[in-house]
Amino acid sequence: MDHITLKPFPADFLWGAATAAYQVEGAYLEDGKGLSVQDSKNHSNAFHDTSVTSDHYHRYQQDVALMKELGLKSYRLSISWPRLYPDGKTLNPQGVAFYHQLIDELLKNQITPLVTLYHFDHPQALQDAYAGWYNEQMIDDFLRFATTCFTEYGHKVSYFMTICESNNVVLYPDLIGGVPTGIDVERWRFQVNRVMALANAKVINCCHRLLPQAKIGPCIGYAIAYPATCDPNDVMAALNEDEFRTFYPLDLLCLGRQNPTVINYFSERGLDIRLAQDELDLIASAKADFIAFNYYQSDVAKYCSQHQIQTQPKFNLAGQKGRYVYPQFPGLYAGASNPYLERSDWDWEIDPVGIRLACRKLYDRYQLPLMITENGLGAYDELVDGQVADDYRIDYLKKHLQQLQLAISDGVPVMGYYPWSFMDLMSTSNGYNKRYGFVYVDRTDTDLKTLQRYKKASFYWYQQVIQSHGQSL
Ligand code: BG6
C-alpha cells in the first residue's frame, strides 16, 4: 500500500493557511468592539493577552501582501463575534466595515477567503447573561450573528465554517468561558454539544437558504485514538475514545443521530442525553457540504476500569516535555504516550501517518469531502539576524502533506489544506512562546518589541510547494 501511484492534488486545491481573530487581531477594544470570553481571560496567565497579539487589525494590508507573496490560494480567517455584536445583540457598523476591508484586500490579491464563524470568542456579555453555550438562548444569538455575516459578506465569500472544534471545546471547558458553578462537567459537556449542534444546523440551513452557491461545514479537532496494545480491552478503549470524542459529536452534526453507546453510558450515570425527535430532525435537515478538521497529533488509549479515579486532561503549559496530564475516564479510556512517536516540547505527538488514517476514517464514515483547516507544529523559534531557520516545521509539514497526498491517492476527496498558522499568533495555551507561523512576529509575551514581520525558512518552502502544486514535496 505504501507504493501506490500518487495522484496529484486536485486542480482547484485550496492551498491555504489559517489564523483566528482573537489570536492575531489585537485592537481588542477598538472601534466599538466588545469583550469576548477570550479578552476576559487577559492576564489570567502570563501567556494570555489579547489586547495587541500580532496587531493584524492595524497591519492587515501588509499581512495580506505577505500572503500574496507566499502564494496562498486561500486564507482562513475568523470573524470576531463581539466586533460585530459587542453586547451580543446590537450591531456595530465599524466591526462590519473591518471585515469588508480585510475580505476586499484578500480578493484584490486573488486569495479566496474561508470564514470561520466561531473560533472560541463569543461576547462576554452573553456569558454573563446566561452562561454562553450552556444555554439555548445562544442559538438565536449565534444565528443573528451568522445571518449578518452571510448577508454582509456572502457575495464575497464562498466558504464558511460554523464552529471551530466543537468537540474539543467541550473537553476543555475553560477555553470558552468555563463551567458555571455547581454544574457537573459531564452535564455541561452534553448540553454544550446539544446547543452547538442545534446552532450549527440552523446556521447551515440559513446559509444554504441565503447563499445557494456557498459551501459550509462544521469543524472538529481529530486526534485519532490508537489502542495502547492489541489487548482487546485497549482496542475497546480506543474505540471508546473515538466514539465519545469525535464520532458522537460528528454523527450528530452530520447525520443527525446519537451514538447508542454514548446514550447508554450517560443513562447509567443518571444523565438522559437523548434529544427530542424534532431536534434530531432539525439537525438532520442541515446538510454540510464538507467536514473541516484540525489535525495536530494522534492519541493513545488504554483500558480504564470503572474504579479508576477520573482525571481531566491538562495542557502542558511549561513547554518542557513530560508535563501533559493524560485523562482518565473510568469505564471508557485512559490516555497514554506513544513510544513510536516524537513529540513537541509541549508533548504533542508528531504523527504524519495519522493524518492519512484520519482522512480515511472520516471519509469512510461520512462520505463528505474534507478540508484540513489546521495542521502545524508549535515550537520555540529563534530570530537570528532577521532569519528563522525552522527546519523542524518544514519537516513536520512536509511529512503531513506527503501523507495527505497518499490519502488523496487512496480516493479521499480533500478540498484544501490550511497549515496553522499563517503568521505567529497568541497560542491558545502558550502565548508567543509557542509559535506556529510561516511569518515571524517580533514580540514576546511580555515585550511588544517592533511587531515587525520576518519570513521564516518555512515561508520559502511552502511558497515552493504551492508554486509546484505539491510536486516539490
Ligand atoms: C487549535 C485551535 O485547536 O489548536 C487554535 O483551533 C490553537 O486556536 C491551536 O491555537 C493550537 O493550540 P495551541 O494551544 O498550541 O495554541
Automatic annotation (TrEMBL):
GO terms for molecular function: hydrolase activity. The keyword Hydrolase applies. The keyword DNA repair does not apply. Keywords: Hydrolase. SUPFAM superfamilies: (Trans)glycosidases. PROSITE patterns: GLYCOSYL_HYDROL_F1_2. Belongs to the glycosyl hydrolase 1 family. This is Glycoside hydrolase family 1 protein.
